[in-house]
Amino acid sequence: MQNRRILTTVLMPHSSKSVQTHDSINLHWTRKERLKWSIILLSGTCLVYATRTSVPLLVPIIGKEREWSKTDSGTVLSSFFWGYTMTQVLGGYVSDRIGGQRIMWIAAIGWGISTFLLPDIISLFSKDDAYSIETIAFARLINGAFQGMHFPSMISLTSQRLSEGERASFFSLVTSGSALGTLLTGVLGSYVLESYKWDTVFRLLGCISVAWTFVLIYYSLLLNGRTTTNKQSSSNKLPIRELITKAPFWSCVIGHACQNNCFFILLSWMPTYFHDTFPEVKSWIVNMVPWLASVPSIFLGRAISEKLIKTGYSITATRKIIQTTCFTIQAINLLFLAATNSSDKAILYVTLIIAGSGFHNSAIVVNPSDLAPKHSGSVFGFMNTIGAVPGFLGVYFAGHILHLTHSWAVVFLYMFVIEIIGCAVYLIFGSGQAIL
What residues does the Major facilitator superfamily (MFS) profile domain cover (predicted)? Predict the structure, then answer.
């Protein structure tokens, strides 16, 4: 009887257990594939942020040309995040079901083409046209909706194709493209503006993004050809009711939202701040120097995180140490920034704040993989949806504060208070242990 069972197992390789094991092996990237996909995803994240930050870079120029008020500029800047929040959860859920790479290239086509066409939308409407700001804001909303699918689909893809021990490190690496993208916009955008009009920046970034999309589609087809289907069974549906009762999830969400409040306001308003407060400062310095610090800080945060884990610190302690470092650096320098009247010191403080944000990539950003390894795309989508709220509320509120008070110091103090709240909540309730 025992021999018959062994023979049956050998002759029936399509049993559910055999297929599951075989599929699991097939779904994981080889070492060579990991290298290729790290380059592809790093480049894609770079372009996502390059196209996203092109508008903040050009708003001072476009706003002056179109006679926009600070409220008008704030509306255009914040509208991106209205669309960004709309597709986070759906993008993560569908990615978990049919594969993150498929959702990613669909999204990339959308944000690449909409970036290329944005100058046409702006040029069609002048200040005197009814609903001109609303129409331009809607175009930005569409761009944000497509970009909102990028990160949830990427974390879903990496969770399905990497082992548990590789996910956090890999995702931290590819998300460093956010800093590189912002730096690319600062360098390339400043250079293009020296010789060409502002619309050239959109055209160039749009063309590069569409070209990257074709590369992504090519490798996605190869990936689908090599592996079996990665649809998950119905038993792996995200238990939303259970998730929203967990304090570690909400600490992750609130911490992410508070850090994003600081990051998105600086991302959107920093060129305008220096343009208004220190007009003598060269634009290329403002758009390039602060973002140079974010790249090494991302890798430093990743290295410290890995070192802490190897020396015996728990995942929970490691995530809290790295995230607290992020909040502390940002909060202290926001106070300094609110009090300074020196352009050199302002550049230094902004640089340190952006450097601090790099540690966030090795803490809360990768936390969904800790909390819910089987549902990381969906959980990240939920977290990033609420985390993007400061994108439209915070950025718009900053513009409203400026309109009422004409004081950048008030804006920075408001950001400081939000940072302290986020730090306290994550320190008390944060966790690196699986809750689902």
Answer: 37-434
Estimate the share of the chain in helix, then strand, then coil, as percent rounded to the nearest 5: 85, 0, 15
- One-letter amino acid for residue 278 of the chain: F
58 and 189 Cβ atoms separated by less than 8 Å? yes
Measured distance CA(301)–CA(316) in Å, rounded: 15
Integer Cα distance of 351 and 306 in angstroms = 25
Please indicate whether residue 3 or residue 264 has the higher confidence score (pLDDT).
Answer: 264
pLDDT attached to residue 164: 63
Task: Return the DSSP state at 363.
Answer: T
Task: Give yes or no for a contact between 145 and 83, defined as CB atoms under 8 angstroms apart.
Answer: yes
Q: What is the mean pLDDT of residues 396-407?
A: 89
Instruction: Quick: pLDDT tens for 152-187.
Output: 888 888 877 887 667 767 877 888 788 889 888 888
Which SS3 state, helix, strand or coil, does residue 12 take? coil
Using DSSP's 3-state secondary structure scheme, residue 30 falls into: coil
First vs last Cα of the chain: how many Å apart? 40
Domains and CATH numbers, the chain: 30-223 (1.20.1250.20), 246-435 (1.20.1250.20)
Reported as a pLDDT band with limits 50, 70 and 90, residue 424 is very high
- The residue among 106, 53, 62, 60 whose CA lies nearest residue 81 is 53
